[in-house]
Design goal:
By secondary structure, the chain is α/β, with parallel strands linked by helices. It is built from 13 helices and 14 strands.
């Protein structure tokens, strides 16, 4: 992708969520009937009950697309995020954190209705994360909330599959994608979660075939999309349906598919595995940072792999190390 005169590299739309990261054990998951590695949607009452049951946690701004946009900004990219928070304490935390890393966030906070979304992330000793998400105010994002002039100013519109869980957010998603197309930009989509794919498979298949230029999915998500246990078969099915498909495989690295080309990208092992939260989000951040600078797809994949390799060595989805320094040391 070539550099354009647009003022933004990537604009993302997603659920504005504050993550509460807590270390837990398998017994806690079993006690609360939680499936390890899953993402379950919960109501506000359940969120309060679970929060009261866990030990001390780390509160940090999160949400899949927001994590990606924050990563792009930390790399030095021009990033903006659109999402809905409430004018409450967690809404203030979210707004401060994403702006502090250099991303633009201008969506007005709601003054009534549900509280700011939060996600309780239970990290077990094997570094797996189990997420319980209360979507709160984030699901009230409407097309009228979109700054479409800001969307037009971006090279790439990045969307998270979790938006499909809300009809209102889905309408905003589609409206923004149409504006991006009209302005000559590209649309990128993250499938977000295998359970999300299960809920919205037909919609995602239609999106991939007709509206998405760059697709991000992990091994479980792409197999779910095409309903197969064979990763290679799923990769063959997605090939050619969009301009680029970047498929992550944890410790196996990733595959980047474009037309008939297949690039195998090795993982980066930068320390002990602590927490996989945000790994896919930061892979997308590194990839899109390179992509919007016209870099070749192999380097884009390596940038994604490097950023993902860093974030799994810490607790939480926002890199605590300098990403520009990381790139300078490993990808000069």
């Amino acid at each position: 992708m070539s550099i354009t005169t647009k003022s933004l590299d990537v604009i993302g739309i997603g659920n504005a969520i504050v993550d509460v990261l807590v270390q837990a054990d398998d017994a806690f998951l079993a006690e609360h009937a939680l499936s390890k590695g899953s993402m379950a949607l919960i109501d506000e009452e359940q969120a309060e009950r679970l929060y009261a049951s866990v030990g001390p946690g780390l509160e940090t701004s999160g949400g899949s697309a927001a994590n990606t946009l924050a990563g792009i900004a930390q790399l030095g990219g021009r990033a903006a995020f659109i999402g809905r928070v409430r004018n409450d304490q967690l809404g203030g935390i979210f707004s401060h954190d994403i702006r502090a890393v250099g991303a633009r966030f201008e969506t007005p906070a709601a003054v009534e209705g549900p509280s700011t979304a939060r996600c309780l992330i239970l990290v077990t000793p094997d570094a797996q994360r189990t997420m319980c998400t209360y979507l709160g105010a984030s699901v009230n994002l409407e097309p009228a909330d979109l700054d479409l002039e800001l969307v037009r100013e971006a090279q790439v519109l990045y969307l998270e599959g979790y938006l499909w869980d809300s009809d209102a957010a889905k309408r905003a998603f589609i409206a923004a994608a149409e504006v991006m197309r009209d302005s000559g930009g590209q649309v990128a989509l993250s499938l977000s979660d295998a359970f999300c794919v299960d809920r919205h498979r037909q919609s995602f298949l239609e999106l991939v075939d007709g509206h998405v230029d760059v697709l991000f999915a992990n091994e479980t998500e792409i197999r779910s999309l095409y309903q197969t246990d064979d990763f290679e078969a799923a990769a063959d099915q997605v090939r050619g349906r969009c301009r680029v498909a970047a498929l992550t495989r944890s410790e196996k690295g990733s595959l980047v598919l474009s037309g008939a080309d297949t690039l195998t990208i090795a993982p980066y092992h930068l320390g002990d595995l602590v927490d996989t939260t945000g790994a896919g989000d930061l892979y997308a951040a590194g990839f899109l940072y390179g992509y919007t600078r016209g870099q070749d797809l192999e380097r884009c994949g390596r940038l994604g792999s490097l950023c993902a390799g860093q974030v799994v060595t810490q607790l939480g989805p926002r890199p605590q190390a300098s990403l520009p320094e990381l790139v300078a040391n490993h990808l000069p």
